[in-house]
């Protein structure tokens, strides 16, 4: 996985009013994927499938989780601190966030800026 910061934290002044409104809408949206594939008392598995140009809405991560890229591709992600990141994924790239909770959360979106579908699996830990 290759990450590049294209707008540093604090860069909200570069965002459009529509982007800022979408961020506000996502501040309490805990649907972190496109579809819940499985859920029990311990974890929830989300699938994310984004065609080229497709956008996954702003959403809030407030539970420990990890994601795994099931396809290669490129994405742009805007974060609630104002930063914007472009990421190049390879199949199998995985990232784990263990220090996330309702007081230590983040909000972001994902836009597929590549030429092929982006597919992820995200697992949230509920306990």
TrEMBL record:
Note the SUPFAM superfamilies from the entry. Answer: RmlC-like cupins
InterPro entries for this protein: RmlC-like_jellyroll, RmlC_Cupin_sf
This chain belongs to which protein, by name? Cupin domain-containing protein
């Amino acid at each position: 996985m290759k990450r590049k910061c294209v707008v540093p934290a604090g860069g909200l002044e570069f965002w459009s009013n529509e982007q800022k409104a979408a961020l506000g809408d996502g501040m309490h949206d805990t649907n972190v994927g496109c579809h819940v594939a499985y859920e029990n008392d311990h974890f929830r598995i989300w699938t994310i499938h984004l065609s080229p140009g497709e956008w996954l809405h702003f959403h809030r991560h407030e539970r420990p989780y990890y994601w795994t890229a099931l396809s290669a591709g490129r994405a742009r992600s805007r974060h609630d601190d104002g930063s914007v990141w472009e990421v190049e994924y390879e199949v199998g790239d995985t990232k784990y966030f263990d220090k996330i909770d309702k007081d230590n959360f983040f909000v972001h979106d994902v836009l597929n800026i590549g030429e092929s579908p982006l597919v992820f699996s995200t697992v949230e830990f509920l306990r």
